[in-house]
Design goal:
The structure holds two protein chains of two kinds. By secondary structure, chain A is mostly beta strands. Chain A is built from no helices and twelve strands. The chains are: A mainly beta, B mainly beta.
């Protein structure tokens, strides 16, 4: 079974600064997907970024980028130029793409606070 | 983009009653939907996988007679919490996938309070 570990329960960053959220996972699969989801106080789950394991290039989405280290099974999220609206819980997630029933396995999440 | 609508957003019910939560994919067909439960400041716990036209697959430890799931069409799945108790109070979230390997799209969640 796959496991996803987010060891930092919470972090704080100054507005406009950069912060990195850590995530490690364990799997015996070679092909899979990794995600970061954001859950603001509204509790809506928002997809931040996605990485396919077969792609060596790290995914980027505007201010969000990942550092995907497949051999180390590490998938960290970097948020540049942090904004107050980035305050939220962030969940790292793993999916083994075996079809429509493929499930997401979530980490415990990290609470990020952006200070003005 | 793909939209998943979940209703109601909040519900309060008395112990012993049943509550139904709906999850709809508005602009795509979802053969599979997922139901999660989330406690405050905790992660999402998968309860069951809902498949259109067949029985749901429940995760270990989830009582299928208590949490009834029906996926009667390609755009609607329902979760019914039967004989609700205060310990069932929680945040329930549904999600759906448009195609086999696309990311999940989540509903806005339902806050259930059992008094």
């Amino acid at each position: 079974a796959q496991t996803v570990t987010q060891s930092q329960p919470e972090m704080s960053v100054q507005e406009a600064e950069t912060v990195t959220l850590s995530c490690t996972y364990d799997t015996s699969e070679n092909n899979y997907y990794l995600f970061w989801y954001k859950q603001p106080p509204s509790r809506q789950m928002i997809l931040v970024i996605r990485q396919e394991a077969y792609k060596q290039q790290n995914a980027t989405e505007n201010r969000f980028s990942v550092n995907f280290q497949k051999a180390a099974k590490s998938f960290s999220l970097k948020i540049s130029d942090s904004q107050l609206g980035d305050t939220a819980m962030y969940f790292c997630a793993f999916m083994n793409p075996t079809g429509a029933n493929s499930k997401l396995t979530f980490g415990k999440g990290i609470t990020l606070s952006v200070r003005p | 983009g793909a939209v998943v609508s979940q209703h109601p957003s909040r519900v309060i019910c008395k112990s012993g009653t049943s509550v139904k939560i709906e999850c709809r994919s508005l602009d795509f067909q979802a053969t599979t939907m997922f139901w999660y439960r989330q406690f405050p400041k905790k992660s999402l716990m998968l309860m069951a996988t809902s498949n259109e036209g067949s029985k749901a697959t429940y995760e270990q430890g989830v009582e299928k007679d208590k949490f009834l799931i029906n996926h009667a069409s390609l755009t609607l799945s329902t979760l019914t919490v039967t004989s609700a108790h205060p310990e069932d109070s929680s945040f329930y979230i549904c999600s759906a996938r448009d195609m086999g390997d696309s990311p999940l799209h989540f509903g806005n969640g339902t806050r259930l309070t059992v008094t």
